[in-house]
Amino acid sequence: MADTPPSGGTPAPLPMPTLEIESELRDSYLAYAMSVIVSRALPDVRDGLKPSHRRILVAMNDLGLGPSSSTSKCAAIVGETMKRYHPHGDASIYDSLVRMTQNWALRYTLVHGQGNFGSIAGLPAAAHRYTEARLTNLAAEMLEDLNNDTVDFIDNYDGKYKEPLVLPSKVPNLLINGSDGIAVGMATEIPPHNLGEVCDALIALLENPNMSLGELISHIPGPDFPTGGIICGRQGIIDGYKTGRGKITLRARTEIVEEGKTTQIIIKEVPFQQTRNRLAEYIGELVKDERVKDISALRDESSARNGEPVRLVIDLKRGADPHLVLNQLYQFTPLQKTVSIILLALVDGRPRILTLKEMLEEFIKHRIQVIRRRTEYKLREAKRRGHILEGQLIAISSLDEVIRICRSSPNRSETKISLQNMEVSASVLGRAIGEKALTALQAELGVAESYRMTEAQADAVVRLQLGQLAALERDEIYKEYAQLREAIVGYETLLASEALIREVIKEDLTYLRNKFGDNRLTEISDEGAYVDMEDLIPVEDQVVSISHKGYIKRLPMDTYRVQHRGGKGVSGGTKDDDFVEHFFVASTHAYLLCFTNRGQLYWLKVYNIPEASRTSAGRSIANVLSLKPDEMITSVIPVRDFEGNFCLLAATRQGKVKKTPLEDYSRPKQGGIIGINLNEGDTLIGVCLVKPGDEVVLSSRNGMAIRFSESDARPMGRNTAGVWGINLKDDDELVGMVVADPEGFLLTICENGYGKRTPFGPNTADELPENGEEAVAEEPVEEESAEGEERSAMRYRKQRRGGKGVRDIRTSERNGKVIGIAAVKDTHELILMTMQGMVNRIKISEVRVVGRNTQGVRVMSVNDGDKIASLALVAAEEVVEEKVPATT
Predict the structure, then answer these.
(1) Average pLDDT for residues 430-437, to the nearest whole number?
(2) What single-letter DSSP state applies at residue 202?
(3) For 25-66, what is each residue's pLDDT tens digit?
(4) φ and ψ at 121, to 5 degrees?
(5) How many CB atoms are closer than 10 A to CB 401?
């Protein structure tokens, strides 16, 4: 009673049903997804059309716009399609119509357009009020037999018209024109193929249903794009045909023309779904950004009138390698693209990934059903017409009686009843129509003494005109009946044998191949399309520098001019409060093994280092390597490859060394790997590449050096601390390590710009105790020594690792401490950089050869408060000298 509303009040509202939002969203989204999949995005495997394209073709067929008719305004076609079948925006309908006219979008166009329907340059089509269209001959073949009950029809969106679920299509449109679309959670990407090749494959499959994929590929070697191009490699094609998914690399067709000193790259075809103007824009942007430096000009010489819809001419600079530039264009522009193969289509209304053979089989199944239904329809029509003719034959055999009944009957209904009650004897019928026709009639109606008309036959006789009873007209009826009897027998024979139906399909395919087949446009190359980045980068030496604050850059070798000993150099571009710590020369194709102060190793390609100007500070190394906040690069080793019996020998500031096979460093991770396990307070100061038989020299900050064989250090894993290489004093530390060259010199540079070079000397060992503790720490000055002592002071004798070493150079207030060493020859050149960024390049031959126990000579003049920071070597035969004053 409490819920009862008061008298005259409003009834209480009924409670709303409770819905689970999760289930409601799931059901609604699934309904939407299936609608997109079935009614919008995916083609039907049978006719290869999406609903929008199918409806446009049906609407044009309804308008009578066949291949032989005149064209009609596209606005009328769009309106008819929208009115009858596709209740969506006119823009989307017209876009679909336009695509079916473009011979660069479809391998075989389905609509013939008159007017501006766009171009391969990327220009849009004119509005639909300006253009006209009609069906092509190929589209007419797809629509043939549409009205012969070959496919099912359903109500359109408002129930006023009927539309076909699929076209009867004798054309394998899905394969020859392909399709692409994105549905909900799935996508299709079916490339176009050559009609003649597809027809040959279908004919072969009809003859041998057990064909293998390899046999099919012999008929269909791969896609055939309307814009031509070159497919690189066949594996992607095989994967796509075998599994329904694959990837192929498509390149534009180009030509390299060299005439005298002029070199050109001519682009003659663009990859599928790319436009000429956009491709030119990409190339222009590369040139503007200096990513491709050897292009001097780009011209568009395309002319559809001259049969060259695509002709982009690229002029190269003098001396440029055209193959290198072409590889760069392949890498950085749509001149080369990856085309996916996703053979996804609707099969029985459901999306399904198909193989090539399954796609062909589905088309054959469709054609078998279409031919069977067409034959059944024609058989029904033939029997219906034959039944009428049989009544007319009965009437002709008793023409006088028929006329009497018609004249005496009060109306048409009575006439039909009287005609149905009229009996005609077999003998009379035979005399009238002939024994052959009678025999055929008896085969249809059965042998009887007399025959009567059915209601349908009587109605047809009543509708006969008097002129049709003339003798010539009677002969036409006899002839038509005989032809119908033969046709009926043929239809029944065809329906009784699937082999005959397959023969009909083969005849249709042969007809299509002969009438519409053409030559393949796309070339298939056995060469792989993978372009290694190294193929895009010229092999040349670069100067690489890394500053103390972590800025890295590379510059061409010719940036730094050759100067004479004692010059001040040129500015290297560091910031005021920064200085260069690492400075070396490496090939653009070299790997850089970057060791940090924490013993970590990072892997980097030289060409991945940003190229900058001489005065630029470079880019933060944090943008190039994944360094931790407290990490700094302490050693960089250029390595061309990781093969061979090589090891890396690492040295720490406390004097330890560790030898590890080079191969152990060939697979670094993104965050780096362990290069050496350091003790607390120790840092990595140097790493060098050694091979069996090499000897190394370690040099300390206070001018001590030790030479020992690399075999003294046994190979260890990456995650180890190593063994002692030199026994240092408390105030000393290791600053450098090099591989000894018996025919070369050890170059030692001090921080105040002084240095010297001393011969390594032959590989002679001095007998030392096992612990290697006894060593010569000081030796007489060269000028005061005897002849034997002088020879000893001019070389570095071999010792066991762990000793104190010998004097390398006298460190004094004039010289300063040692900042680095290098193994050099007379042909080398030296590049020095100071903490303030000044750079000097001199010939090694200009550095005086003196003994170990000396102070050396001035190598570079440094400003007050400045000091030498690093050094690097250059082989003289790899550079071009410039004659410049020593004071430059």
Answers:
(1) 69
(2) H
(3) 877 777 777 777 777 789 999 999 999 999 999 999 999 999
(4) -70, -15
(5) 16
Block residue for tokens 């030479």: 707
Q: H or E element: which one contains 715?
A: none
Q: Which of 29, 32, 130, 157 is catalytic?
A: 130
- pLDDT higher than threshold 50 for residue 766: no
CATH placement of domain 537-878: 2.120.10.90
- Say which amino acid occupies 724: W
Q: Do domains 49-168 and 370-506 have the same CATH topology?
A: no
**CATH number listed for the domain at residues 370-506:** 1.10.268.10
**Separation of alpha carbons 287 and 329, rounded Å:** 11
Backbone angles phi, psi at 124, to 5 degrees: -75, 165
Query: Comparing 12-16, 510-514, 662-666, 776-780, which segment has the lowest mean pLDDT?
Result: 776-780
Q: Which two tokens stand for residue 413?
A: 């209904």
Mode of pairing for the β-strands spanning 684-690 and 111-114:
unpaired
**95-116 tens-digit pLDDT:** 999 999 999 999 999 999 999 9
Look at residue 658 and give its three-state secondary structure: strand
Would strands 541-547 and 580-587 be described as parallel, antiparallel, or unpaired?
antiparallel
Q: Which residues contact 206 (CB under 8 A, 6 or more apart)?
A: 364, 502, 505, 506
With 0-12 CB in 10 A as exposed, 13-18 as middle and 19+ as buried, what is 186? middle
- pTM, two decimals, is 0.64
Burial classification of residue 195, based on how many CB atoms lie within 10 Å of its CB (0-12 exposed, 13-18 middle, 19 or more buried): buried
Query: Letter for the amino acid at 355?
Result: T
Class of domain 253-334: alpha beta
Between CA 513 and CA 523 the distance in angstroms is 20
The answer to whether residue 130 is catalytic is yes
Determine whether 256 is exposed, middle or buried from the number of CB atoms within 10 Å of its CB (0-12, 13-18, 19+).
middle
- For residues 713 and 722, what is the distance between their CA atoms, to the nearest angstrom? 8
User: 49-168 adopts what CATH topology?
Assistant: Topoisomerase II; domain 5 (3.90.199)
Q: How many CB atoms lie within 10 A of CB 511?
A: 13
Map out the domains of the chain as residue ranges: 49-168, 253-334, 370-506, 537-878
Q: Residue 666: how many CB atoms within 10 A of its CB?
A: 14
Q: Alpha-carbon torsion 563, 566, 570, 572, what sign?
A: positive
